[in-house]
Specification:
Chain A: It is found in: Cell membrane. The complex is a heterodimer. Chain A is mostly helical. Chain A has twelve helices and two strands; from the N terminus they run H-H-H-H-H-E-E-H-H-H-H-H-H-H. In chain A, helix 10 packs across helix 11. The chains are: A mainly alpha, B alpha/beta.
Chain lengths: ~325, ~250
């Protein structure tokens, strides 16, 4: 028998270190724009966008174990909903967020309800198709601006202050990333979060112990969709112009890459993976035309030597 | 009225008949057993009772309520829990998290209240953890609560699976070969544990078991299966000398 105090100490110390590292990283992120030029801030903003998207996809892939190859579709649903409502109908940006969330939920149910009964590989193909369908619809509708996209999206205002510069959006994405991490952490440690892990590790045992697997999967899928849609709203506001080419299969793959690269299922790993996905193309800019080759070799090396990701879940 | 009432249950896979018109019942508060040679259809019957297989006909009633055709999670929520023949734990999760899964169908807070950290959600989490700890304590593995389930010894994994099923606060628990792979000492502990389940919680037990000694020791009634048919039913001392049962196990002389 180990007495309570020893267990408490053993679990407390790493937790203290973990929180110190997280706080230091946060402090670094807060002051970063004061020390670097606009280009670096721009790249860092992209990194934060990927943090939000990867955390969202991690709920689907990492928690519930569903392979989703069309996640960018929900990102697109958010961006287009917000973009159309502000540019065409003069909506206030902040009001478009709940509408986009609702739209993502509906899209999640439409695609998820019939397909989440399928086992993983079939689901992957259906989501792949869904991603392409959304992109092609956006290309062909008038309201989405067709292939050339949607322009003239309003910049958001907050308490009379208009978000204009790269720095402003950097902080907006930082707040969104923190909020997403908080939401993920809260849910991960709750009843529904555990249910996702039960379903991921043994679907039949989960059903046998009283978990509605289809409902659990659908909720993971919808929650992932909602997070992507909120990221999409802010992305549209930052870019002021969006086109279907921002939401390709490649985009879905990059987000998935971030989740797998860092170590799916665990928030610090996913954040690390997301940052790497955003930084890699910039760091490798010097490699010129060899860039795709160098990227591929680097990724293969990581997957060979750290198959569970760079910062894996201790459970696996 | 019997707690579990099975009437004329039929199951087939394609042209293969697995269960032929099975009828039996389990009284509330009883410890009953299903025995039979390998392939007799015992686990298939469990899978029908728990909703994993869809029977072709007949009826299954739990406390008077028809449960046939319901999804497995609905049946668990109505008070019928099970363990698996080959242990099916969530090996990558902690022992406590495993046993907490049993309370899923007895709790209700979802994503939104978890994000908002509602007081009622926190209380519910507290309760789920307390119930889990209680059952770990009941089966005697509370000191391993924070270890990974996959790292437990085989005997403790069996106990954990039992604790997990008990944590869903069932009325009836189905144990699929709980003694498989246990040594003599562990089997004795199991007999003790099964008796405690009934005496301390009032939960009814139905088990599938190959170990005749154990079956004869714990059960008041035994149902014997062979080739998907019920060939005998009754008290252990009656079943033990039934010629049909002896034939099923040892073969007939001619």
């Amino acid at each position: 028998m180990v007495d309570g105090a020893t267990i408490l100490q053993a679990t407390k110390r790493p937790r203290l270190i973990r929180w110190s590292v997280a706080l230091a990283a946060l402090a670094g992120a807060v002051v970063l724009p004061q020390f670097v030029n606009a280009y670096v801030t721009e790249v860092a903003t992209t990194a934060l966008l990927y943090v939000v998207l990867c955390l969202g996809l991690n709920i689907v892939v990492g928690y519930a174990g569903l392979l989703d190859l069309g996640y960018a579709a929900f990102f697109a649903v958010g961006a287009y909903t917000s973009g159309i409502l502000t540019a065409e109908f003069g909506f206030n940006f902040w009001l478009t967020i709940p509408v986009a969330m609702a739209a993502a939920c509906v899209a999640g149910i439409i695609i998820g309800a019939p397909t989440l009964r399928l086992r993983s590989d079939y689901l992957a193909i259906v989501t792949l198709g869904f991603g392409e369908i959304v992109r092609i619809i956006a290309r062909n509708l008038d309201i989405t601006g067709g292939a050339s996209g949607l322009v003239g999206i309003e910049r958001p205002e907050i308490f009379g202050f208009k978000l204009m510069q790269v720095q402003h959006f950097y902080y907006a994405f930082l707040v969104l990333a923190l909020l997403t991490a908080f939401v993920c952490l809260s849910v991960e440690r709750s009843r529904m979060g555990r249910a996702w892990f039960y379903v991921r590790y043994d679907e039949d045992a989960a059903a046998g112990i009283g978990i509605n697997r289809v409902s659990a999967k659908l909720q993971a899928y919808m929650m992932g969709a909602v997070i992507a849609s909120v990221a999409g709203c802010l992305y549209a506001a930052k870019m002021t112009a969006i086109s279907p080419e921002s939401f390709t299969f490649n985009q879905s793959l990059l987000i998935l890459l971030g989740v797998v690269l860092g170590g799916m299922g665990r928030i610090p790993g996913v954040v690390l993976g997301a940052i790497l996905v955003a930084l890699l193309p910039e760091v490798l800019r010097g490699a010129g035309t060899y860039r795709p080759l160098v990227t591929a070799v680097a990724l293969l090396a990581i997957m060979l030597f750290r198959p569970n990701g760079l910062w894996p879940d201790k459970r696996v | 009225m019997a707690l579990l009432e099975v009437r004329d249950l039929r199951l087939s896979f394609g042209g293969l008949k697995v269960l032929h018109d099975i009828s039996f019942s389990v009284e509330k508060g009883a410890i009953n057993s299903l025995i039979g040679p390998n392939g007799a259809g015992k686990t298939s019957l469990f899978n029908c009772l728990t909703g994993f297989y869809k029977p072709k006909g007949g009826s299954i009633r739990l406390g008077g309520r028809p449960i046939m055709g319901l999804a497995p999670h609905r049946i668990t929520a109505l008070g019928l829990a099970r363990t698996f023949q080959n242990i099916r734990l969530f090996k990558e999760m902690s022992v406590l998290e495993n046993v907490m899964s049993g309370q899923h169908c007895r709790s209700r807070h979802g994503i939104v209240s978890a994000i908002l950290h509602l007081p009622s959600q926190l209380r519910e989490e507290e309760r789920i953890r307390a119930v889990g700890t209680h059952w770990l304590d009941f089966v005697g593995i509370a000191e391993h609560a924070h270890r990974l389930a996959g790292g437990l010894s085989y005997g403790d994994q069996r106990r954990l699976e039992l604790a997990r099923a008990l944590a869903s606060t069932p009325e009836l628990i189905l144990l699929d070969e709980p003694a498989a792979g246990l040594n003599e000492r562990e089997k004795l502990d199991l007999v003790h544990l099964i008796r405690r389940i009934r005496e301390e919680t009032g939960i009814t037990v139905l088990l599938i078991e190959h170990d005749m000694g154990l079956v004869m020791q714990v059960s008041e009634k035994i149902v014997v299966f062979d080739y998907g048919q019920k060939i005998a039913e009754g008290r252990p001392e009656v079943v033990r000398v039934d010629p049909r049962v002896i034939e099923a196990y040892l073969g007939s002389e001619d």
